[in-house]
Automatic annotation (TrEMBL):
The lineage of its organism: Bacteria, Bacillati, Actinomycetota, Actinomycetes, Streptosporangiales. This is 3',5'-cyclic AMP phosphodiesterase CpdA. InterPro entries: Calcineurin-like_PHP (IPR004843), CNP_phosphodiesterase-III (IPR050884), Metallo-depent_PP-like (IPR029052). Belongs to the cyclic nucleotide phosphodiesterase class-III family. Pfam families: Metallophos. It comes from Nonomuraea dietziae. One of its GO terms (molecular function) is hydrolase activity. PANTHER family: CYCLIC NUCLEOTIDE PHOSPHODIESTERASE CBUA0032-RELATED, PHOSPHOHYDROLASE. Residues 5-180 form the Calcineurin-like phosphoesterase domain.
Amino acid sequence: MQVYAHISDTHIGGSDQSVERTRLVMRHLLSFPGQLDAILVTGDIADHALVEEYETARDLLRSPIPLIICPGNHDRVPEFEKIIGPANQVLRLDGATIALADSSIPGRDDGHLSDETIAWLDEVLSERPEVPAFVGMHHPAVPLGVPYVDEIRLQEPERLAALLDRHPQVVAVFVGHAHTAVATTFAGRPLIVAPGVVSTLVTPTESGATVIVDYDLPPAFALHLFDADAGTLVTHFRPVTP
Ligand SMILES: [Fe+2]
């Protein structure tokens, strides 16, 4: 069994609570008495892509457990790479490969996987085709039933689907961006959206409005349990309160 904690959308500097919420969630994850193999952070790390926001994020996201991060639409790759690290990051664990890719487009809120990023993913996934893999990025590749987010989802998702077809060892896709825990499918695989750390997006059905961002609901994370022998991925979603 492998265990991955998946957080997203810390938006450091985006609200009074962004720092405290990120600290709370990281403290929670790092105090697990049980197994935790990796921490994944799927984008929108800094709200305004300021160097000082990235410096705060870097300090908050320090971890003795392997941790990888990709940028989101609120991030800017040059500042991200200067303070946080490469925009495309891979974790080669004993029983799994986890690759987080940059799906941001400079100056835009929707997402896209560039030719360079697709080539990077192809290369990383070709290294160990016999080892199960997970691919992550910021932008969901499918509509989630929330128009506000659906308009700024991953463009040309067929490029991602074709990549996954070339690498059948990819078990699931992990994303963020929506600030709400979602389980759906894409290209015949689970597509799991981590809830937001900074806030929670409420669906039109619940709120009666097009866009309701709730800053009072607690931050939350996804806990992925992967059983390589059974080939199953199970995800638990957990709020974190002080
Ligand atoms: Fe986003």
